[in-house]
Amino acid sequence: MSLMRLAYASEATFEAKPVEKGVEPHVARILMTSRKNNARDQLVGGLYYGNDRFFQYLEGDEDAVRRTFDRILKDERHKNVVTLIEEPLTSRTFSNWSMKYVPLSRDVRNFLDEQGLESFEPSSFTSDQCEKMIELIRNSSQDQNPVNRDDNQSVGDAPQVLSSGMKMGLIVAGLVLVGALVIGGTML
Ligand code: FAD
After folding, report:
1. pLDDT tens digits along 162-180
2. Vertex 100, ends 79 and 56: CA angle to 5°?
3. How many Å lie between the centroid of ligand 1 and the Cα of residue 75?
4. Residue pair 85/78 in contact by the 8 Å Cβ criterion
5. C-alpha of residue 30 to centroid of ligand 1, in Å
6. pLDDT tens profile 125-176
7. Using alpha carbons only, how large is the chain's radius of gyration in Å?
8. Of the chain's two ends, which shows fewer C-beta atoms within 10 Å, N or C?
């Protein structure tokens, strides 16, 4: 069995919708299918979506990578697919991930800043930038739930949703306040 690796860039054709559970809904569907199929085909890799662009890295058995890429090429949810890397691989470089999803766009923003790039335009990446992006995906830690922070908010913006811990804290604080007002009222 020969191994290969492949990276490409493309442009989303869909209009990004508000994020649901931390990920854009079209991308969530793509991730669900990818994780099911890639686990079956023992493909590993990662996907980054930002600025209406995709960057995807895949590695695994050559036939499986090519079959998958053939399906991806026909997908109407993106266009202008540019192959950035397509070459044999001696050993796998990702472990136990069917499709990693870069959770922190801050990492990508740092990478773009380091490279002096203003926006995420992966189709213009040099091979060195591709390798750095792959390294970034490889090193990003996450669980299998897609968590994307690049949800049309710029890095550094305040989060739009409260964490469940913060919500609980606010509810408790509210109850204490109401209790104090009630007790205070009865004492007057
Ligand atoms: P199906 O059972 O045919 O479809 C699975 C789900 O995807 C269904 O809900 C279906 O409605 C939906 N779907 C399929 N095609 C479209 C479409 N053109 N428009 C809207 N919805 C559609 N597939 C992988 O297996 N591995 C990958 O790593 C992978 N990466 C992708 C990256 C990108 C950027 C994109 C756009 C697609 C990717 N896909 C990937 C999806 C791939 O293009 C095929 O849709 C998928 O492989 C079909 O698999 P299936 O026959 O098992 O799914």
Report:
1. 445 555 666 666 677 666 7
2. 25
3. 7
4. no
5. 6
6. 999 999 999 998 888 765 444 433 344 443 333 333 444 555 566 666 667 7
7. 21
8. C
Q: d(Cα 147, Cα 89) in Å, to the nearest integer?
A: 29
Mutate to test the pocket of ligand 1, among 30, 33, 65, 80 (most ligand atoms within 8 A of CB): 33
Query: Is residue 98 lining ligand 1, measured as CB closer than 6 Å?
Result: no
Amino acid at the residue 170: L
Q: Does ligand 1 lie within 6 Å of residue 30's CB atom?
A: yes
CA-nearest residue for atom 40, ligand 1, is: 34
Residue 49 CA, closest ligand 1 atom number: 34
148: Cβ below 6 Å to ligand 1?
A: no
Task: Quote the crossing angle between the two packed helices 105-115 and 127-139, to the nearest 10°.
Answer: 150
Q: Which atom of ligand 1 is nearest to the CA of 76?
A: 18
Q: Would you list the domain boundaries of the chain?
A: 3-139
Q: Please tell me the CATH code under which domain 3-139 is placed.
A: 3.30.70.100
Note the pLDDT tens digit of each residue in 44-76. Answer: 989 999 999 999 999 999 999 999 999 999 999
Is the beta carbon of 167 within 6 A of some atom in ligand 1?
no
DSSP 116: T
Alpha-carbon 163 to chain mean position: 20
